[in-house]
Amino acid sequence: MTTATSTASKGLEGVVAAESKMSFIDGNLGILEYVGIPIAALAENSTFEETVFLLWNGRLPKRAELDEFVAQIRAQYPLPKELIDIITSFPKTAEPMHVLRTGVSALSLWDRTPDAITPDDVHAKGISMMAKMPGILTTFDRYRQGKPIVPPDRSLSFAANLMYMLNGEKPTRTMEKALDVCLILHTDHGLNASTFTARVIASTLSDVYSAISGAIGALRGPLHGGANEGVMHMLHEIGSLANVEPFIRDRLEKHEKVMGFGHRVYKTRDPRAMFLKSFSKKLAEQTGNSKLYEMSRKIEDLMDAAVGSRGIYPNVDFYSATTYHCIGLKLDLFTPMFAISRIGGWLGHVIEQQDGNRLIRPKADYIGPHDQPYIPIDER
Ligand code: ACO
């Protein structure tokens, strides 16, 4: 006998599983706000550090508060020497997302109170983890290329220091702003798969290192944060403007997904994609990558005509791929960059989860058989 019907919501679609004061998303009108402030206003005027303060504290900081927050982050840029030794003993062929997940998890080993989860503890550990993620990634990236490790520069912003440690030279103001905008736009987005993962782990009263390394694991999947790398692979595979149309038509005919399109929540244009579209256009022109932008535009037009009426539009990953390429990031650093930005949201949600926590424990509809005999192993 099997259960006839299941009440399960596949993919938990439409299920409200938490309350949050961070992101407001209207997927039909294409609105995204952090603590009530439209995302475009933050991308234009704020910095990543200030936006993270906003998410963790529910308000914009005063100047002195921001200065202090920035100073706390910069003080935490350096990695423990032993962690650098460990990272520089990894196989050079390792995938950077595995390195990032492992490095974040390893940070718990140098924390004397890794399990402390009061709001103050979580803030302090969050600052340390966020400040050190660029070091984990850049140390590995330079080591795998046989280049000397670049120590952090505490005079630089989060975005500028990240690029400095990666490339060994300070970025131009345009490049720093481009990365900062990407960090802001990616830092929180409601109860997405990786954020939900972080909240589930936090709800067991486990430590923040476990919550964040679990979230990194969820983010790397191609249906979630891994899609930005998928977009770039796709653009490389297409290769030319002339090949865009046959490629997209072929994908759609075979019922294969076009990376960087579609979203569980947005049934109209993703406001982050809209912002990045105009931003990446300018950046592509400035960096000699206009062909890439033109290919993206053509893909968008074709997808609009083919599946726009079904609510399938570019998501944040579509134009962030072009943006990351224009600022000179290697392909396999796209998703780690997303993870570094999402720490703001993940930590904020861990703080919210721990405030009035209740264990997250949904149930499954059992749809298997009942009353089965146990058959001895030699008789099966
Ligand atoms: N290309 C072509 N068709 C698509 C796409 C796409 N990118 N996305 C959805 N569809 C179609 C599906 O084929 C399906 O069609 P069907 O009903 O005829 O079978 C229908 O739309 C519904 O698709 P689902 O995958 O069930 O919708 P869901 O809400 O689960 O999808 C998701 C959301 C996973 C993001 C999906 O759109 C997708 O796989 N997109 C490509 C990967 C991607 O860009 N992910 C990044 C998301 S944003 C982020 O995580 C930061």
Q: What would you note in describing this structure?
A:
By secondary structure, the protein is mainly alpha-helical. It folds into 2 domains: 19-220 and 337-354, Citrate Synthase, domain 1; 227-326, Cytochrome p450-Terp, domain 2 (Orthogonal Bundle). It is 56% helix and 3% strand. The protein has helices at residues 39-45, 48-57, 63-75, 81-87, 96-107, 119-144, 158-167, 173-186, 193-203, 208-219, 227-238, 241-253, 271-286, 290-307, 316-326, 334-354; strands at residues 23-26, 31-34, 37-38. A 3-stranded antiparallel β-sheet has the order 1-2-3. Helix 11 (227-238) packs across helix 15 (316-326). The radius of gyration is 22 Å and the shape is globular. The model has no long low-confidence stretch (mean pLDDT 95). Acetyl coenzyme *A binds at residues 11, 223-225, 227, 257-264, 307, 312, 315-317.
Descriptive labels:
380 residues, mainly alpha, Citrate Synthase, domain 1, Cytochrome p450-Terp, domain 2, 3-stranded antiparallel β-sheet, 16 helices, globular, binds acetyl coenzyme *A
Q: Compute the CA-based radius of gyration.
A: 22 Å
Task: Write the CATH homologous superfamily of the largest domain.
Answer: Citrate Synthase, domain 1
Q: How far is it from the N-terminal to the C-terminal residue, by CA?
A: 20 Å
The run of helices and strands is EEEHHHHHHHHHHHHHHHH
